Amino acid sequence: MKILSVSDKVEQQLLTRTGSGLPAPPDVILACGDLPPEYLSELRDIYNVPLYFVEGNHDIRHHRSPPTGCTNIHARIVTEQGLRIMGFSGCRWYNGGINQYTEPEMKKIVRSLWFKLLQSHKVDIIITHAPPRFIHDKEDPCHKGFKSFTPLIEKQKPAWFIHGHIHTLFNDSTERITLVGETKVLNSYGFFFFDTELVEEEPR
């Protein structure tokens, strides 16, 4: 499946039906926060594929003008063409603004999905706004990652863990990705295009 991930920065080159620079049309778009709702709506319209998103700490208009035709998957698990995707909005609490969580609050949200995970196959992709703690994050209060994401990666072993929030310019795609066990942790700042394959689980 061909996946376009976006976060934090409006990329004008993606808003043209030709000449976007993508190697192929995406099958699904995953948005990791801090993007205007109009931008997400336009991406959904241009590529005419499902768009799933989580919200960032600067997404202050989504509640009153949500992106048209897009699906918020905060604290949810969805299945798209056989691909199981989980999402978590927000960043670490730093000034009490929207979509900010303390570590115990995020841990509680993650734990609320464990029963559902036990009842089904593991997830293939996790999308978040904030990164896991000590992976791509920074030391200022706003940009520290969540510790509670680490056991989720270790137990679920998703193929991809995709986040935004950390603004970094990359010279090549390998700088974006850190391998944690079997999981590729990807900083999606701006946009990133990749292929993923479904791996069937062995019967339990």
Would you spell out the secondary-structure blueprint of this structure?
Blueprint: E1 2-7, E2 28-31, H1 37-47, E3 51-53, E4 71-72, E5 76-80, E6 83-88, E7 91-92, E8 100-101, H2 103-111, H3 114-119, E9 125-128, H4 149-156, E10 160-163, E11 177-180, E12 183-187, E13 190-195
Parallel strand pairs: 1-2, 2-3, 3-4, 6-9, 7-8, 9-10, 10-12
Antiparallel strand pairs: 1-13, 5-6, 11-12
Give a description of the structure.
This protein is of the alpha/beta class. The protein has one domain (2-195): Purple Acid Phosphatase, chain A, domain 2, CATH 3.60.21. 17% of the residues lie in helices and 26% in strands. A six-stranded mixed beta sheet has the order 5-6-9-10-12-11, with no helix packed on it. The chain is globular and about 45 Å long. The two termini are 25 Å apart. Residues 199-204 have low confidence and may be disordered.
